[in-house]
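Sanity check

After download, print the first record. It should look like this:
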Amino acid sequence: MTMLLPPRAIVRRSTGNWALQATLERRGLGPVAGVDEAGRGACAGPLVIAACVLRRGASAVFEGLNDSKLLTAAARDRMYDLVCRRAVDYTVIVVPPEEVDRIGIHVANIEGMRRAVAGLSDQPGYVLTDGFRVPGLTAPSLAVIKGDRVAACVAAASVLAKVTRDRIMTDLHQRLPQYGFDVHKGYCTADHTAAMTEHGPSPEHRWSYANVVAAAAGHGLPSPRERLHRPR
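Expected structure tokens:
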């Protein structure tokens, strides 16, 4: 018996980081949502996940849209405002550090991506995720290596997530200036490690992380879990 396969989809690279979305939509699989996160590698502050749907053929409107890490802070802010105004739909999920500690960073990321997609006003026909597969989404999905550089909707999600998180960390700096959150945004830099060593970790740190535990031990501070289970 001869098996008939559907015709192969052609991805037109000339359309840049809009090519994958355009290909999926030509096959009737739209609208296409992109999903990305910010703060996975940090040891303080929240994990932020965004989902975003961009209108097909809007590349001129979003000229310069790219992986948020490749944009300057000023360019990210401008693109964030543009995405908020002109995206078809978007959601942003903020997962606090205590939830990251409770369920683990990977599970928090997966569940946050599910919540972000489920929170869109109109459910997408297809979802593109950055780097790894996300089971349990409300639509078929594809994990795209370096998705925030390859797919415009994922790049838009990365901008939403990073700018939201950076602003949260800048606000935290006003309350906890000794840690320098406005500079390193909670990532594990030498200056951040030195600040934790000097002052001990704050409630905004992720107490399940080894470097935070080590800094707490240097100050004789129990983790929130240890405090919870201490005999009274």
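If your output differs, re-run the checksum step. Summary of this record's structure: The CA atoms of residues 174 and 192 lie 16 Å apart.
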